[in-house]
Design goal:
The chain is mostly helical. 53% of the residues lie in helices and 10% in strands. The protein has helices at residues 13-21, 31-47, 75-81, 83-86, 96-110, 119-131, 148-159, 175-181, 194-199, 203-227, 232-254, 283-305, 310-326, 348-365; strands spanning 2-6, 25-29, 90-93, 134-135, 138-140, 165-168, 171-174, 263-266, 272-275. β1, α1 and β2 (25-29) form a beta-alpha-beta unit. α5 crosses α10 (203-227), α10 (203-227) packs parallel to α14 and α13 runs antiparallel to α14 (348-365). The model has no long low-confidence stretch (mean pLDDT 91).
C-alpha cells in the first residue's frame, strides 16, 4: 500500500495522476498540517465561549442571518441543518471520478490550516476518498462564483445526513449505506465553521478542470501519432503550447489555495484574527478552461483532416462541430446574484464542464 501525504501546499497535477493510477493508494494528512489545523482550531474554540466577539460564520448565521448570534450550545444543531438549504441542484449526477477528486482537493485546501477545521474532519474526508465513496452531486446548480450547491451535496455525504446519496462499487445508494458498506461510520458530527469551510469555494469546478486537463495530456501522444509526418503538429504546438502551460500553472496553484470565509491569520502578539475576502471565485480557471477548449478545436481540426472514409468522415464532422460548440466562451459572461450583492458571477463551472466534455469528444474523434 502506498501512502501519499497532503499538506495544503504541494498537491500537483502529477501527484493527482499518480494517486489515481495507484489502486493501492491511500492519502493521509501530514503531521505538520495536522498541527497547523489544531492551532487555528483552538482559536475557533475560544470564539465559541460566551464572552467572545461576534465572528461571521463561527458564532453567527450566514447570509441574511449574518448578524444573528448562534449560542454555543446550538452550534451542533445549527451546522447539521445548514447544508440542506444550500444543497440545491438538478440534472444528471456528475461522474463519480469528479466528486471523488473534489474530496481530495478540498481535504488539501483545508489542510493549509487557515480554515480553522479540526484535523478529524480532514481525516474523515480522506477516509471517504480512500474508500472510493463518491458523493452523488447534481451537474446543474453552480453559478461559478462559488460551487455552493455542489459542495453542500458533498458535505451531506461527509456528515452522513438524510437524503444524501453516493456511488459505491458501481451502485447509487443512500450515503449512509455506502459508508457502512465501505466500513466507515455512517455519520460524522460537524462542528462550528466546518460546514461553511467545506461548501464555500469552487472546488468542484477545480476538480472538473483538473480531470479534463489530465485527460487532455493523455490524448497528446495519440495526436502526435495521428499527425506524424505533417505540418499540423508543429503548427499546433507552436500556437497552443503557451495556453497549455499557462493552464497547468493555474491548476497547480489552485490546488493549494484557501477558498472559504473567514480565514484565520496569526497575529504577532499571539492568537488569530478572522479575515474576510472574496476567496470563493474560480474566475481564472474558467478563463483557462475556455482557452483550452479553443486549443482542443485546433487539435481536432488537424485530426479530422486525417480521417478517411465517408462514414468516418461524417461522424468526425459531427464530433468536430460539437467540439467547436464547446469553444464558445462562457466565462466572460456574468449574471449578478443575491439582488446584486454578488456583482460578478462568471460561469467558470460551465467552462470547466465544457472543457471536460470537449476532451471526451476529442478522444472519440481519435478513434475514427
Amino acid at each position: 500500500m502506498s501512502i501519499y501525504y497532503i499538506d495544503g501546499n504541494s498537491l500537483t497535477l502529477e501527484t493527482i495522476r499518480t494517486i489515481m493510477a495507484d489502486k493501492e493508494a491511500r492519502v493521509a494528512l501530514s503531521d505538520e498540517a495536522a498541527a497547523r489545523c489544531r492551532a487555528t482550531r483552538s482559536q475557533i474554540d475560544r470564539w465559541m465561549e460566551k464572552d467572545a466577539p461576534v465572528v461571521y460564520g463561527v458564532n453567527t448565521g450566514l447570509g441574511n442571518l449574518k448578524d444573528v448570534v448562534v449560542p454555543p450550545e446550538k452550534h451542533i444543531e445549527w451546522n447539521k441543518t445548514l447544508p440542506y438549504p444550500h444543497a440545491a441542484g438538478m440534472g444528471d449526477y456528475l461522474p463519480p471520478e469528479v466528486t471523488l477528486t473534489s474530496l481530495l482537493l478540498r481535504a488539501n485546501v483545508l489542510a493549509r490550516g487557515y480554515s480553522g477545521v479540526r484535523p478529524e474532519l480532514i481525516e474523515r474526508i480522506l477516509a471517504i476518498y480512500n474508500a472510493k465513496v463518491a458523493p452523488a452531486v447534481h451537474s446543474e446548480g453552480s453559478t461559478g462564483l462559488s460551487d455552493l450547491g455542489p459542495l453542500a451535496q458533498n458535505v451531506m455525504t461527509v456528515a452522513g445526513l438524510d437524503e444524501a446519496k453516493a456511488y459505491y462499487e458501481g451502485g447509487l445508494m443512500p450515503s449512509r449505506e455506502a459508508l457502512r458498506k465501505a466500513g466507515l461510520a455512517e455519520s460524522f458530527t460537524l462542528e462550528c465553521k466546518e460546514v461553511l469551510a467545506q461548501m464555500n469555494g469552487s472546488t468542484m469546478t477545480q476538480a472538473i478542470a483538473v480531470l479534463a486537463f489530465l485527460r487532455f495530456e493523455e490524448l497528446l501522444p495519440r495526436v502526435e501519432a495521428r499527425l506524424a509526418g505533417g505540418a499540423e503538429l508543429p503548427e499546433f504546438f507552436a500556437g497552443c503550447r503557451g495556453v497549455v502551460e499557462f493552464t497547468k500553472g493555474i491548476l497547480n496553484r489552485e490546488n493549494n489555495i484557501s477558498c472559504d470565509n473567514p480565514l484565520l491569520f496569526e497575529l504577532p502578539e499571539g492568537g488569530y484574527e478572522a479575515v474576510m475576502g472574496c476567496n470563493c471565485s474560480n474566475t481564472q480557471v474558467g478563463y483557462a478552461a475556455d482557452m483550452m477548449n479553443t486549443v482542443i478545436v485546433e487539435l481536432a481540426n488537424g485530426v479530422f483532416e486525417k480521417i478517411s472514409g465517408k462514414i468516418a468522415k461524417n461522424e468526425g464532422r459531427h464530433l468536430l462541430n460539437k467540439i467547436k460548440t464547446c469553444a464558445m466562451q462562457v466565462s466572460a459572461d456574468s449574471i449578478p446574484t443575491k439582488g446584486g450583492q454578488e456583482d460578478h458571477v462568471e460561469f467558470s463551472f460551465t467552462a470547466a464542464r465544457k472543457f471536460y466534455y470537449a476532451v471526451e469528444l476529442a478522444g472519440k474523434l481519435l478513434t475514427l
